[in-house]
Amino acid sequence: MVKFKGYEFVDGGVCAAEGFTAGGVIAGIKAGNVTKRDLAMIYCAERCRTAALFTSNKVKGAPIIVSKEHLKDGYAQAIIVNSGNANTCNPDGVEIAEEMCELTAQALDIDENDVLVGSTGVIGQKLDIKPIRIMIPTLSKSLSKKNSGDAVEAIMTTDTRKKEVAVEFVMDGRKCHVGGMSKGSGMINPNMATMLAFITTDVAIARELLEKALRKINKLTYSMVSVDGDTSTNDSLFLMSSGLAKNNEIICEDKNYELFENALYAVMMNLARETARDGEGATKLLECIVTNAPTEDIARSVAKSVISSSLVKAALFAADANWGRIMCAVGYADGDFDIEKTSVELASAKGKMTVCVENAGISFSEKVAKDILSEDEIKILVDLHCGHESAVAWGCDLTFDYVKINAEYRT
Question: Is residue 293 within 8 Å of residue 389, measured between CB atoms?
């Protein structure tokens, strides 16, 4: 976990913020599943100002269509989400997503338009509403401040670890929280969102500022992650604010707004890193740090290009300091900069080594390089020497297991 001064990491995930409870149950949505939770719910005692971002894929899961409609007034109170089936490319997908919202609303005694819905799993497979219909009442009764972990488990597919983070900080003398959970392991190349992510806060903040903060921080975190270059059809990112911390409402971009924005970054950045670390079949977390770029957009483009390269990812799986592949990826990134000034270093807990200076290789020890690259966290440091802007992107190595997992995904 990357820590930040002034922010204390606490337990609770999406339930750390005042007013929120969560739960997860086994519904048996995917054939043969009798042991893993696959239906989750998040609920707040108050209607929440809510902001959201969704996939840029032209093919969109039915839950996205329904959630967008329900968010037209900018408020939500609950989220219902299933794993095991993405509810995408189904002729009755919208009707099923709407029914999931209606059933949740009935169980919680709230307006169905205040319910958001998400799904993840196999695309194009018919979703049976029956097990969901049966288990929603049980799920609603299981809601608790202590059950964030159950909800996280319920949204996992090929994930190998739970991803939840929460921070506590002080604003106007009041204890405030931002917490979140997400899932994602494969089909990860977010553009405005991630696979599924749910962020909650008790900070009182105007909705337009809530949305502005979400867009900005997402651009720096989830949108800088790539596992395999595939953008999902179901990417959904929700941020709900209960306002129950009772701070003076944030209505302008002042010091309190900056305090909230940094808390949101602390949560979303750590969740984004964990998404990359947990890439399908991954053995290493890769972090590309680009410095001295002429613009932030160019820095982001170069970092994302390097981290998305299958050749770079495969080389680092083998602990091979094949820096030429890194320079290749730098070279085809969007943006105008002088490639002849670029240098590259590789680093880990074992040390740091320069492998390229001014777009040319230099002598280095292959043995030392292999030691550095054999660690489970690798940094790729790219200095463009063309300006003062920087960016960070996260990815993972490309292993034999990635192919195996995806070759057998439906079976």
Answer: yes
Structural domains of the chain ordered from first start: 8-277 (3.60.70.12), 285-407 (3.10.20.340)
Report the alpha-carbon distance of residue 409 to residue 411 in Å, rounded: 6
pLDDT per position as a tens digit, 65-98: 999 999 999 999 999 999 999 898 988 999 999 9
Residues designated as active site = 194
pTM (predicted TM-score): 0.92
143-166 confidence digits (pLDDT tens) = 999 999 999 999 998 788 899 999
